[in-house]
Amino acid sequence: MTISISPIGIVKNSRLAVEDDHWGDVVSIIKLDERFSEESLAHIADFSHAEVVFYFDRVDEQKIETGARHPRNNPNWPKIGIFAQRGKNRPNRLGVTVVRIVGQSGRNLTVEGLDAIDGTPVLDIKPVMREFLPRSEVRQPDWATELMKDYWD
Amino acid sequence: MTISISPIGIVKNSRLAVEDDHWGDVVSIIKLDERFSEESLAHIADFSHAEVVFYFDRVDEQKIETGARHPRNNPNWPKIGIFAQRGKNRPNRLGVTVVRIVGQSGRNLTVEGLDAIDGTPVLDIKPVMREFLPRSEVRQPDWATELMKDYWD
Question: How many Å apart are CA B50 and CA B48, to the nearest integer?
Fold first, then answer.
């Protein structure tokens, strides 16, 4: 079974290189495709945050991991299944990130903290609702906390 | 631009009908495709929660909304842009939900609180890391809180 997806828009920002860290301050404009009217974003700014689904289009198909690997190829961390980490070299190359909504104007949505480089195709935007956040205590292994140390800084 | 996606697995659970509410107690098994070894899930149970990306395959293409509509067709709520709501009749038909991890065995991942019916194609699984949750206060409009009232109950 193959599913065909068409990007709904594109990321515009100042991040041109694929880098691991320091995404917190990055402001991006998501420019919706002309197929969509500005109505498709109506009332989005009543939410503080949105979830952006995007496509890691710069990842080479041959680099996609289907088993386990050291996150960031760091041998100090255990070999972790690709579905137990958030690395970009993953089957289907889908990224999902919660961003802060800065504002909306026409078909442009301005957001802060989107960890995607300039030109990245956007596949969906959803509002963050409190009820869709974890409903019980979040637990994670030490390697994940270490890996994320400078991610947003 | 068209992107080809292949499901990584399928949802198995007791929910056969498309319904809006009462998803909190639903236990599902995500059965990974044979292309993947159990290594692809290695160490996932060190996390309490995962984010599941899935495909609303039962949504008729003609029903997809590209502008704004009343959530759940309820005229008491305002007309909301499709990207400012989480309804299933959306461009690209992508769902994203945080679930609680119950356990993993081989290529099967058992989760609680996945709001997808039996047979739904799964496109990705990512671990929930605290650092990927909203990093500032979450604000949402009243209609969203009302709509979610019985969603997990």
Answer: 7
Q: Report the sign of the C-alpha dihedral through residues A108, B97, A89, B93, in that order.
A: negative
Domain extents for chain A?
9-63+92-130
CATH architecture for segment(s) B9-129: Beta Barrel (2.40)
Which tens digits make up the pLDDT trace of B103-137?
999 999 999 999 999 999 999 999 999 999 999 99
DSSP secondary structure code for residue A102 in this structure: E
pLDDT, tens digit, 9 for 90 and up, residues B27-41 = 999 999 999 999 999
What part of A 9-68 touches B (C-beta under 8 Å)? 24, 32, 35-37, 39-44, 46-51, 53, 55, 66-68
Nearest by CB to residue B138, choosing from A4, A126, A130, is A130
Q: Which of B132, B64, B138, B72 is nearest to B98 (CA)?
A: B132
Contacts of A119 in chain B (CB under 8 A): none
Interchain CB distance below 8 Å, B82 and A35: no
Closest residue, chain A, to B137 (C-alpha)? A48
The complex's ipTM works out to 0.96
The C-alpha atoms of residue A111 and residue A26 are separated, in whole angstroms, by 8
CB pair distance less than 8 Å for A136 and B48: yes
pTM of the model: 0.96
B125 in contact with A, Cβ within 8 Å: yes
A9-63+92-130 carries CATH number 3.40.50.1580: no
